[in-house]
Amino acid sequence: MPDVRTRSVKSLATAAEAGRHQREWFADLHRRVADGEPFALLNADVPHEIFRTMDIPYAVSQWWASLVTAKQRSGHYLELVRQRGYPDYSEQYNSVTLGSAFDAEPEAGPWGGLPRPDIIVGDATGDVTRKIFDIWGREPGVTFYPLESAAENEVPANWWELMPHRWEEAVGPARLDLLTAELENLVRFLETTTGRRFDESRFREVMALVNEQEEWNRKTRDLIARARPAPLGVVDSIPSVMLPQWHRGTEWARDLARRLHEEVRDLVDAGQAVCRDERARLMWIGRGLWYDMGFYQRFQEEYGAVFVWSMYLAIAADGYVRYGDDPMRALAARFAAFGDQLYTPPWSSEWYVKEARLHGIDGVVHLVSDDPRGGYFTTRALEAAGFPVLEVHADNVDTRTFDGGVAERVGQWLESVVLPRSGSSPVSGRTPAVSTTAAASRAAGAS
């Protein structure tokens, strides 16, 4: 085995390429909207693949919020929400994007601002999310198309093993019947309102490309889980995974997922490590801390603690792959239980425990925000499985909620709980200064 060498903290080549592509794509999006093409704003957890198939330009609400936050502009948009008399302290991830609808100078936003959408599509998960999209639908020229959020009493064990081929068993026929019918109605609605046609042959191509992309992500997840020490941290992996996710169903996204795997494999083969003296492997549960992505790098130099896991690569590996002869029903299976996989116990809690064991995690930092339910059960399940958990109660796009002493709390927790359990002790030194804005910009594709 080659000698372990510390890799300088910098973006992967695939992350840099993803950032460049995102800028070029958004500039092209502006041109297409200016030329009169219909524009859709989609929630992260709805089937983008239909819009890809019909070549309808779209952007993702959560991606826009992450970009705005990385540019330290989320406070501005939350203020616009507050000025309209709406709460600025609830479900900020979508509220930040809603603020764009109220901006008198939208072109002053990042990258020229978010174009005004013609169509909004979101799932009705929770009362707050539905109300936010209802408000969007009251804006002139905007139509909101809601998708239902169904539940199932029976919860499958080890759903991640069932989903690729046995998704009917995992999700349940009633939920699949409902969402399949809704997606078929969505296609008819889009054909009527946009004049675009839905081509099933093209749809099958899109679905196949998504499966290929996520299979590469699964290989990358498994490679990182096995590697000791970690070849990269989550600041490197998140942009290389998430920006292509917003372009699922394209050859570019499929190919970038393959190149990411090759890049990580080369790092492992060369004996490269993001932290030479790795003493603890950490798991970050929750959404990306977009206004302070450098947070994840602060504990490597002094404590030898590396955040090796985030939900973005892990859910790409386990949450998307669907094979089957009926592509529309397979697409419904991809999203009918998507929120459950991340937030609803025991779907979510059992999965997090599985991932912690797979990656050899020594400690978990759990970002608990108001709107994703199930945080209590996630923490309890991990602790019951023997993993120490530190909860951070904050919102990932609202800087007002983030206590400036969180990094100190994490350091104390590492010293008193995590490192003693792993038989390690911190070395003397100071945590290196990290450009948090630059790290956040890379992760959101903003640099």
Secondary structure layout:
Elements: E1 5-6, H1 13-34, E2 40-42, H2 49-53, E3 58-60, H3 61-70, H4 74-83, H5 92-99, E4 119-123, H6 127-137, E5 143-147, H7 159-162, H8 167-171, H9 173-194, H10 200-226, H11 234-245, H12 251-269, E6 272-273, E7 280-285, H13 300-303, E8 305-309, H14 311-318, H15 327-335, H16 338-343, H17 347-358, E9 363-368, H18 375-384, E10 389-393, H19 406-422, H20 436-444
Parallel strand pairs: 1-6, 2-3, 2-4, 4-5, 7-8, 7-9, 9-10
Region (Disordered): 422-447
Family: Belongs to the FldB/FldC dehydratase alpha/beta subunit family.
InterPro entries: FldB/FldC_alpha/beta
Order of helices and strands: EHEHEHHHEHEHHHHHHEEHEHHHHEHEHH
Strand order of the largest sheet: 3-2-4-5
What count of helical segments does DSSP give?
Answer: 20
Rg, Å, rounded: 21 Å
The percent range for helix content is 40-55%
Structure description:
With 447 residues, this protein is α/β, with parallel strands linked by helices. It has one domain. The protein is built from 20 helices and ten strands. Helix 3 crosses helix 5. The N terminus is likely disordered. Belongs to the FldB/FldC dehydratase alpha/beta subunit family.
Descriptive keywords:
disordered N terminus; 20 helices; alpha/beta; 447 residues
